[in-house]
Design brief:
Number of domains: 1
Oligomer: single chain
Helix content: 55-70%
Number of helices: 4
Shape: globular
Distance between the termini: 19 Å
Length: 66
């Protein structure tokens, strides 16, 4: 996920919540074709967010952003 490493430079510019949603949207875009269902996508995106020490997103975020 080298694309997510490129997003790191925006961390100082955006507020924490905005950065979290930005990373989540990028992760959804990158992972949506690689998983079988929305639940797997939800778990994968939250794993990425937690690895970057960000709060997890809700399942509703996945449903509205696909």
């Amino acid at each position: 996920m080298s694309e997510l490493l490129g997003v790191e430079k925006f961390r100082a510019v955006l507020r924490d919540e905005d950065y979290r949603f930005f990373v989540a949207k990028v992760a959804v875009f990158l992972l949506k074709d690689k998983v079988r269902n929305k639940t797997e996508l939800y778990k994968s995106v939250n794993k990425i967010l937690l690895s970057q020490q960000l709060n997890p997103i809700s399942f509703n975020f996945i449903r509205t952003n696909i």
